[in-house]
Queue: 3 jobs
Job 1
Amino acid sequence: MTSHACRGKCTGLLWGFFLMAILTYLLLYIKLTNRNTPKHHMTAYWLQWIAFMDSKKINSAFDSSNNESSKFNDSINCISQNLTTEILDLCQKSERGATDNGFIPFNKFEYPLEIDMNDLVSNLKTAKNVSIKPIFSYPYTFVKSPTWMCEYRDVRLLILVKSGVSHFKRREMIRYTWGNYTESGVVTLFLLGSTPHVMFQRRILQEHHHYGDILQMSFFDAYYNNTLKTVGGIKWARNHCNQSKFVLFTDDDFYIATELLLKYIENMQRFERTSVYRGAMWKRGRPIRNELNKWYISRQDYPFDHYPDFVAAGFMLMSIDFVIDLDLAIPYTKKFIFDDVFISIVAYKLHVQPSHMNSVHINKFPYNREGFRQIIASHGYDRTSTLQQAWWIHQNRHLHKSGRKSIRAYSVRAT
Ligand SMILES: *[C@@H]1O[C@H](CO)[C@@H](O)[C@H](O)[C@H]1NC(C)=O
Ligand SMILES: *[C@@H]1O[C@H](CO)[C@@H](O)[C@H](O)[C@H]1NC(C)=O
Ligand SMILES: *[C@@H]1O[C@H](CO)[C@@H](O)[C@H](O)[C@H]1NC(C)=O
Ligand SMILES: *[C@@H]1O[C@H](CO)[C@@H](O)[C@H](O)[C@H]1NC(C)=O
Ligand SMILES: *[C@@H]1O[C@H](CO)[C@@H](O)[C@H](O)[C@H]1NC(C)=O
Ligand SMILES: *[C@@H]1O[C@H](CO)[C@@H](O)[C@H](O)[C@H]1NC(C)=O
Ligand SMILES: *[C@@H]1O[C@H](CO)[C@@H](O)[C@H](O)[C@H]1NC(C)=O
């Protein structure tokens, strides 16, 4: 009786479960594939983020430590913050005021060459005889240099996208979305290093033949050569595109609202801003001393307890006067492995302060229409589909009609 009664109901139930399982799977799949970065990248990001938040906590705890009504007891500040062991270690050392075993406090910052950088730069500009010898040699050449991109053209903004040699699809999608602004006086070029991979190089040459927007340099393309890439970009901008008032350095996994950025720049020009160095600013960022971390830096290479305030590498907006000064000062500054920190060190020596842009996000901005009306940039768009989606939301387009068509058109072109 019971088994008979169950048969009808149970098949229904089973089907129900089956459908639910499929639905859940689909939902999870959509959610997971919308995730921004590959795993190893994410982990590194999280570690950096945690360290950043922790350093903020430590700083705020220290700032309030002189305050009588502060709820923190000085000697337990570090413990009560639930810090990672590494940060806890730093925290306790600074708490004891130790510099012997800890790191040198930033107010004692020194970095080769110890010279008056502004003085040097103005001497170099006036072609005075400078006897100081450069310490950062840049023997690399431009394998592909599309100098015509800036010639005879009214350029308002030069966008240099640091891209990996094998990221063909990302470049294609950028050209198709936020990079397609040539008529508005925007020149977008992709900065690449070299590759021993013959097939890759062949495809890059084809790509360049087709679009003419590849700026390839002779050093080996690798994450830890990003400083060489940025320095090469600075050189090129100064020598071949200095009529552009602004230069933006960005990465190929960034979403950028080009016309909002142009508005932002227009506004700055109205106030004749000089020495512009802007983006998502990291105040008093702490060097990471964990050897497993992507951003590990040894005590020998950087002995101070924090970096100069810097603008995160994925979005560095600079005015051309600053770019020119950087290009002149860089040969006289010791190379540093992370390009954003390196720029901040040179900027510090030139007495140029970075400033923060609220509309630049170093984490992935969630898709919502209101938000996309205001943000200028967001990181984490390494999948061509998510970049396209973000772009459509930004343009307030509907996904169902023209969207599908363009996706198909795109996938035909990219393969
Ligand atoms: C001390 O901290 C309290 C609460 O955190 C704050 O209201 C007060 O202004 C602080 N005093 C000083 C001198 O910083
Ligand atoms: C702070 O904490 C230490 C140890 O936890 C304790 O010995 C000291 O009395 C505390 N100081 C104050 C002002 O509460
Ligand atoms: C620290 O971590 C422990 C366990 O992980 C938790 O119980 C505690 O509430 C945390 N304290 C703070 C201040 O976050
Ligand atoms: C520049 O200075 C160096 C030594 O300081 C000297 O050898 C050289 O001749 C000078 N060059 C010019 C053009 O004055
Ligand atoms: C760029 O936009 C124009 C229209 O504004 C369009 O005709 C062209 O096909 C676009 N280029 C790419 C690469 O999508
Ligand atoms: C950076 O480029 C130089 C020159 O091509 C190369 O010798 C070096 O191995 C590269 N660095 C990394 C980390 O790949
Ligand atoms: C600007 O670019 C032109 C070539 O386009 C070059 O001759 C000039 O020296 C550059 N200016 C500076 C300050 O580098």
Job 2
Amino acid sequence: MLTTALVPAPLRLVGHPRERAIRSAITEAMAEAASCFVCRQRVSRPGAFLCAWGEAAAGIAVAQCCRECWRDASDDLVEANAARVLQGAVPGGRFLD
Ligand SMILES: [Zn+2]
């Protein structure tokens, strides 16, 4: 099973049970050039981070959404692209929410 969180930037994670792990995964992800999972352009200013982790796996996967998409794209579009990204991470995975 995969747990996911869509975390807006700047991070508001206080009290999240995985706060520390998510913060460090996002910090690592930001150090690398990444493309937006919605528009696929290179992210210069992130708007949100899609985080996913499994029960067994120690690591947290992070995908970035640029600020423009996070502000302008519809929730449906962001969610559809998030599902696509996560399906790539977990082929055949189903999402419960
Ligand atoms: Zn974008």
Job 3
Amino acid sequence: MSKVSIQNVGKVFERAASPVPALDNVNLSIEDNEFITLVGASGCGKSTLLRILAGLEYRTSGEVLCDGKSINSPGADRAMVFQHYSLYPWLSVIDNIKFSRQLQVNRENLTSSDVEAASGRADALLNLIGLGKVRNAFPNQLSGGMQQRVAIARSLMGRPSVLLMDEPFGALDSQTREVMHDLILHIHRVEKTTIVFVTHDVEEAVYLGQRVVLMQPRPGRIHSIFPVPLPAQRTQDMKYSTPFRELRAEILARIRESTGITTDLDMLDKLNVQSTAV
Ligand SMILES: Nc1ncnc2c1ncn2[C@@H]1O[C@H](COP(=O)(O)OP(=O)(O)O)[C@@H](O)[C@H]1O
Ligand SMILES: [Mg+2]
């Protein structure tokens, strides 16, 4: 059985003026422990699909199963990481990681050994993300990359079986992103979670994904699915290899084709039209 099964999913946003068909007939099976990346131009429904998987948004048609069960609300089996790491500024790094677990402890009247186990887990995650030294620092004392690492650790606290990430490294500089790429691959190996990772960056999608799902806009749907022909253990130098460059070029060409943008000048034209329309 697939970990996640997306069957004929459609989503229409009802708006006063005109309905927006955000997703149309999306079908995708994601295997246990797979690292899958969703890539595509802005507006092709990537975030909407991820939010449906998280249970934060309702689908208007179709079915989504996680471990065979229909997804209709958020659940501890699925954790989400956003681009903007919303850490609590008044809590230290370690308390941010423990926070949601602490809520659960308070709610469920757990015993002191449960609380200790949670503390052990938080420390293990802190070491996994390489931030043991800043355990007691506050978020505003950390760089953006470090804050995002804390947000990732926090999302892993409840041992989710599926980790959903929406452009999590989009706000980081390119060197920090490379470090984060190798870190998230390491986390994927150690924690054995299934990861669904949304990005508009084709290079990032190919470097991280075992399969890359290319989406296309208006309405948002799957264009094609590419298996990535690289060894499971990725290293940065693979970005210069022929299979990597060929797949990246292929996906970029398909994106340009499906959005009608073939050159940078077309892109400029589109932007001009949009700004005169405003
Ligand atoms: N809450 C909303 N209300 C109305 N339209 C929305 C809403 N969220 C997204 N959309 C529309 O749905 C489409 C897909 O959006 P989104 O999933 O955010 O795309 P992506 O993440 O690929 O950029 C876009 O046309 C967007 O404008
Ligand atoms: Mg988005």
